[in-house]
Amino acid sequence: MSDGPATTPNETVDGSGNNAIDDEPTRHAARWGSVERSAEERSIKRRAHRKSRYGCKNCKTRRIKCDERKPECTNCRNRQVRCDYLPTALSQTASRTLSCESTASPSDAAPAPNALNVADAELMYYWTTSTCHTLSAQSAGATFWRTSVTEVGLAHAYVLHLLLAITALHLAHCRPTRRDEYVAHADKHYTAALPSVTSELSHINQGNCDAVLLSVQIICFITWARGPKPGEFLAFGVNGRSEWLIMFRGVRTTRESLDQGSFTRSLAPNLRAKTAPLRELKPPPDYKEPLVELLSYIKSNSVPSQLESNLCSHEVLLECYQNRHNGIDGEYHVVFAWLYKMQEGFLEALQRHDAVPLVLYAHFAVLMNDMETFWYMRGWTAHVLGGIWGILRDEDRVWIRWPMAVVGFIPP
């Protein structure tokens, strides 16, 4: 009597006590099938690799592998673009430099001691080849900005920072897909320049007067280039005097602080230069009759204490129209001589939102509209007229219908 269960000749007992078929052909077929499946799996199995599931947007847009390095991936760093991993745009601009090649691994690489700031080099290149030409309607004026102003910038760092800031905003306008990156560069350079400009304004002398005058002019351009902002209408603001007007009036303060001969690199050359008149508009606006009607409105609606300044404002405005359309003006931005020459009493009334100064300002907007041929003035005319329309009462709005019709402004 055996200790285990009975078996047939073709059966064996496995380690668990269960019967197993001792069938050689069956075992051979099973082994052959396993070999075939293993070979097939090896032939179709792809090589394992690390997938980039959390890559930055730039790499995903370009459909390339992102190494997900922090604080910015290698692809964005090499292309000098803002990486999504950076906490702020300003931190990116401060950290972006091009280091020399190194044999060390990418994770251990560090900027070279003499690292080249490619972003600033790009801005300087476009300043001298493109942006400087947009600040003047004349080739001689563009040459002045490209050569004389650049030389002043090389001697005064804050001027150079402002030149790079206006260029960065120009690139932001021309390359909307990289707008945030270029605006960050503009903010960085503007922030670096402003403290020095403020300090120099309070200590102006023959050694720095050209740099200071050019700086406040460039800051005015930068404000235009940043585009219209709610509540800011250049000559006035919803909650008081606008920042732009304060800086614009700083041009006058700077010029009056010294005699004109002291500004040897900025003011004097432009005063001596003879430029061709601006191209006449065809047809030119019929401004004479509307300005006569405006004069009647001023006389009828001005309070006695403001009548003189309002009449002076109208006289200067008429002169600006005549200079523009009678072949005298050689630059578009000289129309801002109207605001430049305004008395403080008139500007204060404008900040109080008095009706007559606002109506006068609306008629000035027609001259300002000519400047919308420049990239940095786009949208400002409609914005200013919209601000004036929103403040005026219905009985005063009728007096700005002519400026609205000339520039094609439709109120909201």
UniProtKB/TrEMBL annotation:
GO terms for molecular function: DNA-binding transcription activator activity, RNA polymerase II-specific; zinc ion binding. Keywords: Nucleus. This is Zn(2)-C6 fungal-type domain-containing protein. Residues 1-19 have a biased composition (Polar residues). It comes from the Eukaryota. Gene3D superfamilies: Zn(2)-C6 fungal-type DNA-binding domain (4.10.240.10). Residues 55-85 form the Zn(2)-C6 fungal-type domain. Pfam families: Fungal_trans_2 (PF11951), Zn_clus (PF00172). The keyword Nucleus applies. Residues 1-47 are annotated as: Disordered. PROSITE patterns: ZN2_CY6_FUNGAL_1, ZN2_CY6_FUNGAL_2. InterPro entries: Fun_TF, Sterol_Uptake_Regulator, Zn2-C6_fun-type_DNA-bd_sf, Zn2Cys6_DnaBD.
